[in-house]
Amino acid sequence: MERQPRRLKWLSEVQKAYPGARRGNWETHGLDSPFAHQTYVPTGLEEALYRDVINRRFRLVVLCGNPGDGKTALLQKLAGQLGIDKTRQPTGTIEHRLPDGLLVRLNLDGSAAWETSSSNDLLNDLLRPFANGAPAEDIVHLLAINDGRLMGWLDGQTTPLAQSLRRLLNGQPSDAPHIGFFHLNNRSLVGEFDQHGNLRTDFLDQLLDQLYGGAEAGRIWQKCQTCVAQPRCRVFEAARYFGPANLSGIEDERRRQHARQQLYRLFQAVHQRGKIHITIRELRGALVYILFGMASCDTYCKADGAKKPYPPFWERAFRVATPDRQGRLLEELASFDPALEAHARLDRALLRHYRGVHRLAEARRRAYFTWLPEEIEQAGGPGTTLDLARGRHLDTLRRLPLMSDEEKQAVLARLGRGLSRLEPLPQPAYRPGRIPFRLHPRTPTDTMFWVETRLEDFTLESPLLGTGVSETGRRGLPAEAFLVYRLPAGNTVRLRLTADLFHVLLELEGGYQLSAATLEQTFAHLSLFIEQMIHAQNQVWYAWHPAQEERVYRLAIETRDLGFGYHQTLRIVPEN
Predict the structure, then answer these.
(1) What is the structure's pLDDT at 308?
(2) Would you state the torsion angle of the CA atoms of residues 263, 289, 320, 333, taken in this order, to the nearest 10 degrees?
(3) Roughly what angle, to the nearest 10 degrees, separates helices 280-292 and 234-242?
(4) Strand, coil or helix: what is 439?
(5) What span, in angstroms and rounded, lies between the C-alpha atoms of 519 and 356?
(6) Torsion angle of alpha carbons 39, 45, 51, 54, nearest 10°?
(7) Burial level of 159, CB count in 10 A (0-12/13-18/19+)?
(8) Which of 126, 368, 392, 561 is most open to solvent, judged by the fewest CB atoms within 10 Å of its CB?
(9) What is the pTM of this model?
(10) C-alpha–C-alpha distance, residues 343 and 507, integer Å
(11) How far apart are CA 479 and CA 40, in angstroms?
(12) What are the Cα distances from residue 254, in Å, to 209, 261, 395, 439?
């Protein structure tokens, strides 16, 4: 069959879900179009809320979070389940009575004003029936609102409702069972653990399938099979690896699932790094950019399309300078670029394989997605992996909440050894069950001083995120972990272990060197954590001098009250 230029309407529609789209971005807010409804992916919270509403479990439902968290879309989906067809009526508050008499009122955007009513006026009207507790009327009110706007409305409010909402915003247990409060910021869209401890990516799988058209994908993309631009089309190239199973011309199932999991791992790394919160709007937009790009069918079908190639999906995922790239999520993805690391044998194999096609950086990015683990190992030698930059320890970090006490202790011991090697100390300073931290006297000296902490005084905490649907038994991928130290006085200090810091501490255990300047500039909170521990050990120090390499001295200050003042004695005794 002769190939002809083909134009795919679906491509122009899906590209509008990217905030930086050239032809408008009207698919980035709520369910305001048929395309948004068609590509919506339920999270399970919709069905749970529907049951809670019709069963009168909650009388007030508040969906809170950041802009782009999907509050409006979720509330619109719930409204549709309740029989409310039009959720963009020309009123500030939508009202609907169910057949059983329940009156439902909803506000899709608590930050918005309407006509002569300010947003405060609309919020006051919606929340007034709950000011002093559960209402007597048979009503349910639903509200989607940004947390900052809700905090603004609560300012100066003293009602029981305001006190309950403040508690819920601060993460405290609810004292008002008639209020359903769901903070969408406290969930993980990029992965959940099921009741058996398996990491599930159902939401991402459904989202990718829906972006390609879901059950209709085969029909939607059929014309691409006879398009003249197919051999050089970057959209079709990505579809081969990430498209649903009902597409024609895709890669085999194992390679396709591997590419998807590698893409999901990238977003999970950003989630674990903890620098940004991934909203559904940002996640959807980043996926659209990586999988579909911003080039149109006309661009690919032009005669000179091959002379000015659009960057492939592996470049759009990692390289900072790709066209139309914007947003903090895409910026974060670039920090995990596999091209930032190296493996001599594997890199030589990649250069041979892609000779005349790719330079090394692009070859590593491409192989990250498209080469299977056994192909990487065959090229690089036994045990070789091609992972994200600074991604070797991500699996350990994400599984911390599921580990046994013994497994946590093993990780804690590794972190302790990493902490003890932040600055060089003599070998005798490293004793079993102890974590030394170096001291720096004001006057430079050949003698090294340090304090010791006990490993048993440290614990690891890594709370799993909720999903809003307790019945499923699933918990969200943790966004952070904490190293907790119990001070001699009994109180504790906590160190937030981001993915970056967790990686550095485990690399230090293996001999990685970190300068003091890097420590201060990159991990200032780590320096503060160490200072707090050092100050708590202000009665005992240890010293070592290179003239006596095997000898460690213990320095202790004894303070006596003489009645007319205090007398301090410094005692120096050999420790070994």
Answers:
(1) 63
(2) -30
(3) 120
(4) strand
(5) 41
(6) -80
(7) middle
(8) 561
(9) 0.89
(10) 16
(11) 25
(12) 16, 11, 21, 54
Which tens digits make up the pLDDT trace of 411-458? 999 999 999 988 889 999 999 999 999 998 888 889 999 999 999 999
Of the CA atoms within 13 Å of residue 171, those in its CB half-sphere come to 5
Residue linked to tokens 């939508």: 94
Q: For 142, list phi and psi in degrees, rounded to 5.
A: -120, 135
List of residues 6+ apart from 366 with CB closer than 8 A: 312, 314, 354, 358
Q: Is-contact 67 110, C-beta < 8 A? A: no
Structure-token pair, residue 554: 């213990």
Query: Token pair for residue 223?
Result: 């014309």
Residue (of 66, 47, 42, 52) closest to 180 by Cα position? 52
> How many residues are given for the chain?
576
What is the average per-residue pLDDT within 303-320?
A: 81
Chain-centre distance for alpha carbon 79: 29
pLDDT of residue 423: 86
Distances 237 to 286, 295, 354, 393, 549 between C-alpha atoms, Å: 17, 13, 17, 31, 63
pLDDT at position 232 is 87
Q: Cα(523)–Cα(457) distance, rounded to whole angstroms? A: 22
Per-residue tokens: 24: 């408008």
Q: State residue 289 phi and psi, 5-degree precision.
A: -65, -45
Q: Helix (H, G, I), strand (E, B), or coil: what is residue 23?
A: coil
- Nearest Cα residue to 370 out of 396, 350, 389: 350
Average the pLDDT over each of 97-101, 278-282, 466-470 and give the range with the smallest value.
466-470
Strand-pair category, 179-183 with 60-65 = parallel
Nearest to 258 by CA among 386, 133, 127: 386
Kindly state the tokens that stand for 54.
Answer: 């019709």
